[in-house]
Amino acid sequence: MFSISAALSGFLLGASLIIAIGAQNAFILRQGLLRSHVFILCLICALSDAVLITAGVAGLGTLVSQSPTLIAAVSLGGMLFLGTYAFMASRRALRPGAMQAGNPEPLGLKAAVATCLAFTFLNPHVYLDTVVLLGSLSSAYQGADRLAYGAGAAIASFVWFFGLGYGARLLQPVFAKPAAWRVLDGIIGIVMALLAISLGARFVTA
Length: 206
Prior knowledge:
By secondary structure, the chain is an all-alpha fold.
């Protein structure tokens, strides 16, 4: 029999790690505002987190933390991808003529899925948070409690991503104006650029 406190601990820690302005969250927010492929993208993010959390709880965190080559490779790929996306978001913000009545052109399904997977797996912070940190802290629990801890963290991801994706619709009236999209894309561009710079610094020092 597992402890409720172990599941709650995993849930709260998982939530604290993912509820932040990051590349993945910014992308899901934008797709939610566009009402474009929301379910499949939220499902991809949540399932990816669940797989990584499971791997960390199972002991993969130790292996990842001891492989600077792996972290450096992911950092380089993430830096290039986020830098490109930052440029695209900034260009959208500076070119309001590309928007039609406050309704930007949504990505196709394949492009949206590929972008979502890139945001998920080309960001070393995802591995550090889910596999290494959550995984290492799971060592405080044994048996069923450890499984409950991991399940709680995974549930937090499902709650957050689906809440963010579908909750974004509440902001739809605000984003009926092109100016609001310019502000959002401007913020996204800045966030992506800062993340790319931080990953570049990680790659140089790795």
